[in-house]
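Researcher: We plan to redesign the surface later, but first we want a full-length starting point. C-alpha cells attached.
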C-alpha cells in the first residue's frame, strides 16, 4: 500500500455561486426568523419595516435558488454548497408562502 492511496487528487473546487447561495439563504432565513419573532412580540402588529425586510428576504431567497441552480450545473465542481443553498433558500420560500397564506 502506497502513501498516496489515502489521497484524492482532483481538479474540483467549490463553486463561488454555490457559496453565495448558502450565504443568501442564511441571511434571508435569519432575517425572516427575526421578523417573525419581532412581530410575535408586538402581538401581530407588524410594522412596515418588517414587511420590507420580509420582502427583501423573499428576493434574496429567489436569487439564492437561481444561483444555487446555476452552480449545480457547473462541471468539475463540488455540489455540496449549491445543493445546501437551494435547500436553505427553498425553506425560506416555503416559509414566506406559509406566512402569506396564513394571513389571507
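Model: Full-length starting sequence:
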Amino acid at each position: 500500500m502506497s502513501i498516496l492511496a489515502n489521497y484524492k487528487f482532483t481538479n474540483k473546487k467549490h463553486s463561488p455561486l454555490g457559496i453565495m447561495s448558502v450565504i443568501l439563504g442564511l441571511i434571508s432565513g435569519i432575517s425572516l426568523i427575526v421578523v417573525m419573532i419581532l412581530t410575535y412580540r408586538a402581538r401581530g402588529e407588524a410594522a412596515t419595516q418588517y414587511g420590507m425586510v420580509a420582502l427583501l428576504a423573499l428576493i434574496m431567497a429567489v436569487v439564492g435558488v437561481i444561483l444555487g441552480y446555476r452552480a449545480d450545473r457547473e462541471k468539475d465542481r463540488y455540489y455540496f454548497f449549491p445543493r445546501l443553498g437551494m435547500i436553505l433558500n427553498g425553506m425560506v420560500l416555503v416559509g414566506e408562502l406559509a406566512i402569506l397564506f396564513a394571513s389571507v
